[in-house]
Amino acid sequence: MDLHATLADFSLVKGGLLFEAEQRLRRAPRHRYDPVLRALVVAVLAWLPLLLFSLVGGRHAVASLFDELQVHAQLLIALPVLIGAEPYIDGRLRFAARHFLHSNLVRADGLETFEADAHRAMRWRDSYVVEVLLLTLAYALTLIAPADAATRSWTLGPDGNGYSMAGWWNLLVSQPLFRFLALRWLWRGVVWSAFLLRVSRLPLTLVPTHPDMMAGLGFLPVAQASFSPVVFSLAVVVAAYTSRVEPQGLSANPVAYVIPLAVIAAGAVAMVFAPMGFFVPQLVRAKRRCSAGFSPLAARHSRQFEQKWFEGGPEKDLLGAPEMSSLADIGTAYTLARRMRLFPWDLLALQAVIGSALAPLLILLVMDRQFLAVLKFIHDGLR
User: Fold this and answer.
1) Which of 1, 91, 264, 324 has the most C-beta neighbours closer than 10 Å?
2) Domain extents for the chain?
């Protein structure tokens, strides 16, 4: 089967109602910096009108807006990251999908089903109904979210009743846009997880002696870690919201900041790497088959080696003896098979997801002017 013909257009990003609308509105051809420009344009569209409308409302409205750290974190950090990370995440997932075929992990009798599963995932990606439902849910979440007039006076009109122009823009454009993009990434994660679930049910040619100690699936945890920018975006918003609830600062109450981000990190690890559990049954069966066949093979090889070298009469020339290399090779293969993980995971991938969830703490430390103090504390503790 031709790899490029099968998955040349596989993508979880390049599809859907919003993507097609962007394609129709775009006059110039795409270029390499397009994701960055799109992120900047959307961020400006969501945030700049809030500033301009607040200027109309006077100095008090502007001061109130700039005290709203959560809004700035959403629209100036999280929102651009959700858009700018699309090519990176899409590229890693496309590589993972192609790697199943490139590494011959799918048996010949499952290739047709694999291709059908890939096209099914892209059909779900292109669903207009799903995007309309996500947009409706984004508006519903925005309308039911309570607004504290005492701290969000920039959203209120001059008489304190009703919404100001900035408040209406925030209610109808900025907040629904951020929530829609976040929900769309959640949907893309569901589509990708469903694709992995269907792949895990195909006849796979797993190799227990593979050096990645995951039977050849070591590329999957790395691909899953590509969702780290999405995790970072959500963690930034949570950290900003915590700073609003705990205005005394990180240094005054560090537990109040650490616990929500720790919960985000734990939840992100569970959600990002949960699809790896789909492959556990096949990994268990592959390891059982390998153990059943490899142990007698290793025993016969070792017995023949001992008979030749320990009971074979006169001393032989050790230098360059092929039996020595053969013994080392089978020993390495046997060790890899015994150490094969039944749940595919990678330490660096795990650290990437956890680090993305905890990264906003560094931003808060800098804003709280405690970053150098924390570094000094760590340095003194290591001395």
Assistant:
1) 264
2) 12-90+128-188
pTM across the whole model: 0.85
Q: How many CB atoms lie within 10 A of CB 52?
A: 12
Find the mean pLDDT for residues 121-131. 92
Render pLDDT for 179-206 as a digit per residue (tens, 0 to 9).
999 999 999 999 999 999 999 999 999 9
Residue type, 103: S
Cα distance from N-terminal residue to C-terminal residue, the chain: 60
In 13-85 the beta strands, taken as DSSP E runs, fall at none
In this structure, are residues 244 and 151 in contact, taking their beta carbons and an 8 Å threshold?
Answer: yes
Question: pLDDT at residue 38 above 90?
Answer: no
User: If residue 86 lies in a helix (H) or strand (E), which one and from where to where?
Assistant: helix 86-102
186 CB neighbour count, 10 Å cutoff: 13
What is the DSSP secondary-structure string of 155-205?
GB-TTSSSB-HHHHHIIIIIHHHHHHHHHHHHHHHHHHHHHHHHHHTS-B-
CB 223 within 8 Å of CB 196: no
DSSP H or E stretch at residue 298: helix 280-309
Structure tokens given for 69: 């750290």
φ/ψ of 71, rounded to 5, equals: -65, -45
Q: Give the helix, strand, coil percentages of the chain, each rounded to 5.
A: 75, 0, 25
CA–CA dist 139, 177 (Å, integer): 9
Residues in contact with 23: Cβ distance below 8 Å, sequence separation at least 6, in sequence order: none
Q: Are 155 and 147 in contact (CB under 8 A)?
A: yes
User: Cα-Cα-Cα-Cα dihedral of 201, 203, 204, 205, to 10°?
Assistant: 160
Q: 44 phi and psi, to 5 degrees?
A: -65, -40
CA dihedral sign, ordered 122, 123, 126, 131? negative
